[in-house]
Amino acid sequence: xxxxxxxxxxxxxxxxxxxxxxxxxxxxxxxxxxxxxxxxxxxxxxxxxxxxxxxxxxxxxxxxxxxxxxxxxxxxxxxxxxxxxxxxxxxxxxxxxxxxxxxxxxxxxxxxxxxxxxxxxxxxxxxxxxxxxxxxxxxxxxxxxxxxxxxxxxxxxxxxxxxxxxxxxxxxxxxxxxxxxxxxxxxxxxxxxxxxxxxxxxxxxxxxxxxxxxxxxxxxxxxxxxxxxxxxxxxxxxxxxxxxxxxxxxxxxxxxxxxxxxxxxxxxxxxxxxxxxxxxxxxxxxxxxxxxxxxxxxxxxxxxxxxxxxxxxxxxxxxxxxxxxxxxxxx
Length: 331
Ligand code: TRP
Hints:
55% of the residues lie in helices and 6% in strands.
């Protein structure tokens, strides 16, 4: 059984891209592997959120994870700051992380360009904190997107360096977990490729979006004046609608509109109405569940507590062993 670990920075609500890209796979994986799913609230501090936003974002991600089917009894679902041992491992790993490699990290270079007024040490050492998250549970499989691969590579470097310095084989190398054929890419509504919250509010459909909001977003998606030749290739923004329909609608619905397009008889308004309806049908039960869970503080508290206890069992053991390897010993 592999130990799988995934972290998410709580920066806003989850969208269909998060659901199909990762969450739906996590739900399947949680019964097959030793899974840790945590909310990276320490990492969030690198952008200085205000306390209310931070708390609310953590709560929403937790409620959304649970509403989508993550099971606190199967996986370890926890909040990063509930495992302060992470911070100790981060400190220890930082002693063997070099300024040069941290400065060369692509995400750091990007961040210092984007937040010139807040180039803090947490941004620089973001990769060592992420390494601490992974190594503290000795995770070997980490489902990450392309943008996180360099961080994973740095984690391997930190792990190997630690082993080398202390002449041990304590840490194993974590590698990216690939969903393979289970990976579904959700295009954004603006036709620019990926669904994401940073690409603008109309690009993503959030699990929490009300039906009227979903309809508006879909109806606003860009289309052209329609095909002029039979079976002609679809421009990007049209392909996006078809790609979404392939995921959200039945095969019959999809082929109905494919045929209409190929015969130059398509009415985008009809297609969008159908697509919006199918998205609403899919998200409505999830949305209701998110709202129910988010308003049940006692339940959230219980889930966070179970997660913190399970995370602590594994995390405290690692930190204790690391301290001994380093030479911190009690008299
Ligand atoms: N850096 C990740 C992101 O922005 C979030 C994260 C923090 C993470 N710690 C992690 C992901 C550990 C995987 C493993 O997406």
